[in-house]
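Continuing the series of single-chain predictions for the mutant panel. This is the parent chain; the variants come on the following pages.
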Amino acid sequence: MSPARAENDVTGVVTNIQHFSVHDGPGIRTLVFLKGCPLRCLWCGNPETQAFRPEIGSVAERCRPGCSACREACPAGALARGTSGVMLPDTSFCRECAPLSEGRPPCAAACTAGALRVYGTRRGAGEILDEVEQDIVFYRHEGGGMTLSGGEALAQPEFALALLREAGRRCIHTALETCGFVPSETFLTACSLLDYLLFDLKLADEELHERATGVGNARILENLRLARAAFPHLPIRVRTPVIPGVNASRAAVRALGEHLMDMRNISWELLPYHAYGNAKYAGLGRRCREYAVPDGECMKELEETARHFARVVSAEEHAGSCL
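Parent structure:
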């Protein structure tokens, strides 16, 4: 079997493929969300991507009062109404549900209202690229390509690298959004296959970082340094979510800027926190920690601080693309 054929057959767990994105890399992008993440950020907007296994989530506004079709269809009867009146799965039973791992749980099939959503299906790299390639006309006319996201895409290293290699064979511009908390060998291999890197950087202080995300940041900062040294021409956009009570201060932004100020071919973007993921927590039967949304004056002040403490060099947006 040829290496290309073998990589097309590599499988992984994907939560979603989002078409026509304009915020996650240059041009019009097709985002492939891989499931699983080693971080547990307190403000995470995509909780359905954290666990590596497929999950079932409820959509509150679609769940019909008095309906129990999902529970009746489940062999274990592992659904019950929560305090909000929405049917919620007992995830301890879901882990043993073979049809769920294939993306076809009987509970979701029985729900005619579409109130149960499957988060995570196993798919092949070649199958994913076939779908991505359907957007190739937009890449050619408007710029763009495929962006791997998550969760943490490199937490499924064999699958993520197979996707990047196959995209390269098909001359599709490649980008990766990463938290950087992955083995350096895997990270640098991925960088060698990329046209563009989106690197999430939350906090410079290791103790605060561990408190906010569940892991320290030494490996993250080292991987960013290694990527810049090994691939000096790879455009890198560092992105920092601004979370009041976590890093929405001049001191926190200044500390991050001091790590970036000597790196070339890097742009730095501050992203205001949003609460779009809160409904997903409820649908997964989990509580979320809510934060205030930073106002415009706060963002303006922090962006001015960032400009003073980091050298922001304009990156070539389409470097490496063969479209």
